[in-house]
């Protein structure tokens, strides 16, 4: 969806509010593809404020299905954040040093889908757990250990711990 914001840019104190639907059915990033299971329309406000600033604001509220970081079970995860962008206006033009990095504003055309995609990306949860004490999966047979125990020998050390162990052993030899 493209919104023409020229009427706001060229007119002091003018604002417009657009109801924006998130069109994404799933969110694709370098982390993978995640189904969006719930999404609320966004009231996106575009305003010419403080005698020379353009402000784009709104609240994003959606839920995505994201695998648990430990056991990989899908976890419905709520993603909720505010968009709040400000640009300086000079002579009815948008002027900002960072403008070159901004891909969602081309002239007076605001590409809402690109804006929202970028904002979801920076607000994406770093880590999702199905529950705080998720037991994860067995490294040997792949069983989900929240659902029961397997009979595997899982005494082998974490590779990072093994490296530390090696260092200790070397010290002992000296
Ligand atoms: Zn889990
Ligand atoms: Zn196992």
TrEMBL record:
<dbReference type="Pfam" id="PF02620">
    <property type="entry name" value="YceD"/>
</dbReference>
<protein>
    <submittedName>
        <fullName>Putative ACR, COG1399</fullName>
    </submittedName>
</protein>
<dbReference type="InterPro" id="IPR003772">
    <property type="entry name" value="YceD"/>
</dbReference>
């Amino acid at each position: 969806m493209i919104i023409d914001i020229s009427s706001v840019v060229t007119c002091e104190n003018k604002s417009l509010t657009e109801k924006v639907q998130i069109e994404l059915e799933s969110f694709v990033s370098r982390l993978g593809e995640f189904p969006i299971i719930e999404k609320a329309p966004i009231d996106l406000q575009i305003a010419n404020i403080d005698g020379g600033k353009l402000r784009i604001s709104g609240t994003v509220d959606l839920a995505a299905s994201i695998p648990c970081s430990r056991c990989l079970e899908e976890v419905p995860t709520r993603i909720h954040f505010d968009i709040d962008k400000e640009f300086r206006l000079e002579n009815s033009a948008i002027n900002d040093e960072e403008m070159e990095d901004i891909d969602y504003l081309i002239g007076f055309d605001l590409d809402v889908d690109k804006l929202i995609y970028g904002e979801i990306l920076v607000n994406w949860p770093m880590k999702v757990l199905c529950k705080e004490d998720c037991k994860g999966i067995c490294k040997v047979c792949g069983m989900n250990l929240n659902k029961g125990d397997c009979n595997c020998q899982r005494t082998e050390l974490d590779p990072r711990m093994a490296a530390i162990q090696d260092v200790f052993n070397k010290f002992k030899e000296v």
